[in-house]
Structures are given as C-alpha cells and as structure tokens.
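Q: Here's a chain of 264 amino acids. Please give me its 3D structure as tokens.
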Amino acid sequence: MKHKDAMQARPGETQAFDRTPCLLDRATHYCPGCHHGIAHRLVAEVIDELGLREKTILAASVGCSAFIYDYMDVDCIEAPHGRASAVACGVKRARPDRAVFAYQGDGDLAAIGTNEALHAANRGEAITVIFVNNTVYGMTGGQMAPTTLLGQKTTTTPRGRSFDNEGAPLRMAELMGLLDGVSFSARCALNTVKNIMTAKKAVRAAFEVQVNLNGYGFVELLSGCPTNWHMDAPTANEHIGKAMIPAFPLGTFKDARTARKSAA
C-alpha cells in the first residue's frame, strides 16, 4: 500500500496528520503507553525533513528498542547487545557519506554497552545516538537498569534501589556533555506535547551536528514503560514528570553549533 493511500481519512473521519514517509505502514506491537512509537516518529520526521532517508543507516540494539527496524524505512544493521554504538562507528567509517545513527535503550547503552558508547563519544565519532531511558530492562522482565531511580522497585530490586547497594542512577546526558569529542548532548522527555516538541528539536540538532559538523550527537529521551512499572499509561506519564524529570533534569548540556556561532 502506498504512503498516500494508506493514510487517507475514511468518510466522516478527520485526519489530524499524515504519516511521514520514513515510517512504514504497520500496526505497533509495543505495549499500551510505551513511548518507543513517539521516539520512532520524531527520528523519522527529522530524517525526512533533512532529506536523509536514502542515505541513512540505522544500527539497532537488543531489547525493545531493537524493533525500530520494523517501523522505519531506512537501511538497518542489527548489533549484538550493547554494541550498537560500536557498529555505528564501523558503518560510518566505512561509509562516511551516510547519516548513521544508533538507537539504544538504557540497559543496552548504559550497562552492557557503556564502554562502546563512552569511547565512541570521546573519540568524536560522526554518528548520532538516540538513547531511550525508561529506567528499567523492558524486554527481559523488568530488572534494574543503570538508570533505575533510587527507591524504584524492579524484579532485581524488590525492596527498591538502594544507594548503598546499587549506587545512584547514571546521568548519561550530563556524562556525554563532559567529553571533548561530543558535539551535542541533551535530555528530553516524551510525556507531554511540549516536551515532545522540544525532543524533536534535540533529535534534529543531533543529526545536524553529524551532517554539518562531522560531529557526535547524543539525545536522551525519558520514556515510559507502563508494563514493567505496573502502571496504566496516564499514571506512567505522570511518573515521568513527578519522579524521572527531578532525577534527570531536562536540558541541553553541550551544543557545538552554539559554540561555533559564538566564535564567529
């Protein structure tokens, strides 16, 4: 089914918006209230708006985030668990003319893939990394992740995460912003329309620093996981605002585009 035909409104219906061409016409498999679909759309819209679809290559990780290749009409390569940033680096070095991005969850990037993620950023590899942080291992049963909040109960922290036992959650956007090789680092949230609009601007900036400055761009997206949080979707959205954002402040922590304008 062609894109234009797929999204035509039926008689009596009002069509609020069209599907951006980079998104495939498929029903989502994600749990109700999951924000991966919103993240996919933001990335797809930016790719289309920048005219990058025919030259984009995605390195998909392991976990719920892996299924992005089922929904996005770009060339994809599946990476072993935690290695999406490393695979993206290899692809970019082999095809420097391509726009390359990795799409990773908190367990994938901040736990098993910490080494690859940090060193890719520190080297200033010309890739874009979209980091979906829902503070829990989603696909494998709700275990504690590096970003699990203090006091948060998971299958491996049934009494809640303790600083004495497990330490504090990692703040990856701030950490990335400290590295000399990083051109852009920001944290956004997907719980409100306003925050989603801000998130899209950050995703666009992360691609722009790759395309225009040959730099590394990183965007952390605070996302909901109602199933493993044992909440309904509205409560999960509220949880992001009340619990996650205070622990993971929103903002831009580094922007080489601004630095370049200031120097000019």
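Q: Can you summarize the key feature?
A: The beta strands are 56-60, 75-78, 99-105, 128-133, 182-189, 216-222, 251-255.
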